[in-house]
Each structure stands twice: as C-alpha cells, then as structure tokens.
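We emphasize that the prediction below concerns an isolated chain of 263 residues; any contacts that depend on oligomerization or on bound cofactors are therefore not represented. The input was used exactly as deposited, without trimming of termini.
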Amino acid sequence: MNKFLFLFLSFFALQNSTAQSTLISGKVIIDDIDYHADLDNFSIINLNTNAKTMANSDGIFSIKVNLNDELLFKNEGIEERVLKISENMISKGFVTVHLNVEVIELAEATINPLKKNLKDNINKEKIFSEKLNDEMGISSPEYKAKLNFKRDEEMVNRTIKAVGGVSLTGLVGLITGSHKKIKNVKVEPQTKHDQLINLKNLYTTYYFVNDLKIPEGKIIEFLDYCYTNFNFKELLQMNNFEEIMYTLNEQAPIYLSKITSNE
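Result of the prediction step, given as a token string:
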C-alpha cells in the first residue's frame, strides 16, 4: 500500500512539474557592435531540461522553461551567458538578453634584437596561427572570396531593412562596388499586407494558434487589428519587437472576446 502511494505521489509531482513549463519568447541583442548582426541559428539551451532552440536573423527566439531554469546563450564569436529564469520573466513572457562580442587576447610577444643583415631578421617559418589557418583553409583565395561575398550580402540586407523595400539600382551599385551617388532612385516600400505577413512568419503560426489561441484563419485579421490600433508601423520602423510581442499577448484575449460576441 505504501509503495502504491509513493508511486502515485511521484507521478503527481512529475505531472505538476511538467504542467508548470511555460513558453517564453525573447530577443538577443549584441551591445558592443555598430552594425546589424545576423543572429540566425544563435543557440539557446535550457541547461535543466536540455531543450534547445535557435534564434532567427533578428535574434527572436522561443523556448519552454520552468522557474529557476538556466538558459545558455552561445554562438561563435560571442561571449557565452547563462540566464536564470525568474518569476518576472515568466509572467511577462518576454526577455531581452544583452551579450557582448568575445574578446580574443593575444599572446605576449617576444621581441628579439635586430641583426645587421636585414634578410636574417625575416622569419620564414610560419607561426602556429598561420599553420592552423592553412589547415582550415582560411588563408585560401576561395575562403576569402566567400568571406567578401558574405560581407556584401550583409550590407545588402542592412540596406533593404533601412529603406523598408528593395531598390534594384541601389543593389547593383552596392554589389559592383560603385560608390557614385544615384539620384531619383524609386524605392518600393513594404506594403501593410507585406508587413503583416512578415510578422506572422516571424512569430510563427504555432505561437498564434497554441499560445494566443487565435484561429489560424484569423491570424492576419488579428495582426491587422493590432497594427491599426497600436501603431505597429512605427514599432516596426524602430525594430521594437518586444513592444509588439507585449501588445499581441495583451490584446489576444480582448480580440477573441470581440469575435466570439460577433458570431
């Protein structure tokens, strides 16, 4: 009898702890850089449950947590950070995580006196880092070409986000390295419908249907309701995704009651 009671209480405790899991969202921000960092596939790991997720290119992510869980934020070139989940984070449903670029300290250099014959001062043997770069292919022309292409691609993406649309003439000038001023370039701004579709894709259908309980066929209508009444146009221009998420969570039950009363 005691054994049966123990098993029952253990099962109840397990069910209770599972039920307390909460899906929270957040945004990763890199503080000490003066350009837009592409945070696509930035890793977030729950060290207590081993749950894992990835951020999108804007640093937005969602993950299930319990109170006092520890989240590890890690990505190549960024200092790792462990964040402990508090009651305030769970009640708010959104957390902003500030990180810094990893600082690589150089080894202390040993300076030898110069020799009379200048050619003898040239060390022909490669240092360890140069050998490592050769082994990894980092010094190859192919790798440098890919790196330059990636840099240009990020510049193009930043240009598109800055103007809210695509300027074909501007893109051609950027990719070809032209620095001449282009006058009377027609910029195609994002339409309101495009912005609503992008918001739906950003936060995912799963979030709207399972967390906010918005019917899938009503997601765009709900976003349009929030966009019109809570100045989403300005919030999008400022990349204020935290305020947008807060508004969506706050307005979802109000919107649901409106459409229920109209049916």
